[in-house]
Design a protein that fits this description.
The complex is a heterodimer. Chain A is mostly helical. Chain A contains two helices and no strands. Classes of the chains: A mainly alpha, B mainly alpha.
Chain lengths: 156, 286
């Protein structure tokens, strides 16, 4: 435990080690650490930015969806309107057509009845003529009396 | 190992003797073969074992950290680099916490002190007879493997720190400011004559305070490690006392080593922290 030259030797070793550490070890490690710190900070900032952008995107998407929904509702409403219109039109058309058919049928029936009446008239005239001839006991000449018979038939 | 031919006292003395190279009493240079010879060499002698182990460990520290510094990038660190960065950040945090001035020397100084002292202290955990026994087989008579149990090593470091304290006191406070700090407190008086009377008293008190810093710094480290080493040596004595004592010695050595890890770390940390604090005081202007 003697104090001797070792003291000076140790001091020199100590100074050399500190100098070496200060020159070649501390600066590169610290600069690497600082650089990494900066990188991490930048990364975090970028992540924050990304998050904000995503939120904005989500907002935009929500707006788009809302727009699309309202548009779809509009389209559905107009389609429904158009549908009822078409139905109404079809109803009207059908009514008109039905009326037309009914009218035509009426006309036909009238014509048919008229025809039948004419035929009946004709036949009746023949019958009346025949009946009158028998009653009168003589023959009525249709040709002579046709005018009278026609008048009779018209009165029926 | 412990008492083949040696008595207990001789065994302990042998373990506490450095391998000393110096000038013999008869004028020739060489190794001291007895503690008596070493003592007679006086100041002009050098402890080869202390120098060897401390320099080897210092170089180991610089090599490990230098390798890590070379491969340190801002990318993901790996293995050793990560470990080194962890220590560096630990030191950096500590220095930032207690040192407010701007000085690029303090942090590397703290790192060097911490790791170097830690490595030197760690040599204490190597069983006390291993390396001396190997040295003995190589023909080396004395071998003390823990440099911090040699006051030369601890004073060498604390004198370096003391020099820096004085240097920065002069540089930051200017000679006048430093002189004022040493003479104008703790006793102060409004009366100039009275103050003049106080000055030598103040200088005496402050001077003791200033000198106590490096002395306490080195003696604290030396004392703790020397005591720890001493207990290891005493425990090692049990190994020569038969099976029961041998087993007891084994258990004790293990237990003390576990506890000693704390001291090893703590003393390195205290030395570093106090150095930073002292330098902070040297940087402080009143």
């Amino acid at each position: 435990m003697n104090i001797n030259l070792t003291l000076i030797g140790q001091s020199i070793a100590f100074i050399v080690f500190v100098w070496f550490c200060m020159k070649y070890i501390w600066p590169p490690i610290m600069s690497a650490l600082e650089q990494r710190k900066k990188n991490i900070a930048d990364g975090l900032a970028a992540a924050e930015r990304g998050k904000k952008e995503r939120e904005l995107g989500e907002q935009r998407a929500m707006e788009l969806i809302k727009d699309a929904k309202s548009k779809a509702a509009e389209i559905i409403a107009s389609a429904e309107k158009r549908g009822t219109e078409i139905v109404e039109e079809a109803k009207n058309d059908a009514k008109v057509e039905g009326e037309r058919i009914i009218t035509a049928a009426h006309t036909e029936i009238d014509q048919e009845a008229h025809r039948a009446r004419e035929a009946l008239r004709g036949e009746l005239a023949a019958l009346v003529t025949a009946g009158a001839a028998q009653i009168l006991g003589r023959e009525i000449d249709p040709t002579v009396h046709s005018q009278m018979l026609d008048e009779l038939a018209a009165q029926l | 190992m412990a008492g083949d031919k040696l008595t207990t006292t001789e065994y302990i003395k042998h373990h506490l003797q450095n391998l000393t190279f110096g000038r013999h009493a008869d004028g020739s240079w060489g190794l001291a073969h007895t503690p008596q010879e070493a003592k007679e060499m006086g100041f002009w002698a050098i402890h080869l074992d202390t120098m060897f182990w401390s320099v080897i460990l210092g170089v180991l520290f610089l090599w490990l950290f230098g390798k890590a510094a070379k491969s340190a990038t801002s990318d993901t660190p790996s293995g050793m680099v990560n470990f080194v960065e962890w220590i560096v950040e630990f030191i950096d945090d500590n220095v930032r916490g207690s040192f407010t001035g701007k000085n690029d020397l303090v942090a590397p100084l703290a790192l060097t002190l911490f790791v170097w002292i830690l490595l030197q202290n760690t040599m204490d955990l190597v069983p006390v007879d291993w390396i001396p026994q190997i040295a003995h087989l190589l023909g080396i008579q004395y071998m003390k493997v823990v440099p911090t149990t040699d006051p030369n090593a601890t004073f060498g470091m604390s004198f370096g720190v003391f020099y820096l304290m004085i240097h920065y006191s002069f540089k930051i406070k200017k000679p006048l400011g430093f002189a004022r700090e040493l003479t104008m407190q703790p006793f102060q008086a409004k009366n100039p004559l009275l103050q003049l009377l106080f000055m030598p008293v103040n200088l005496f008190l402050e001077g003791i305070g200033l000198l106590a810093k490096p002395v306490s710094l080195s003696l604290r480290l030396f004392g703790n490690l020397f005591a720890g080493e001493m207990i290891f040596i005493l425990i090692a004595l049990l190994f020569s006392g038969g099976l029961i004592f041998g087993l007891l010695g084994g258990v004790l050595q293990w237990a003390w080593a576990v506890f000693h890890i704390l001291i090893v770390l703590l003393q390195a940390f205290i030395f570093m922290t106090l150095t930073v604090v002292y330098l902070e005081m040297a940087h402080q202007e009143h």
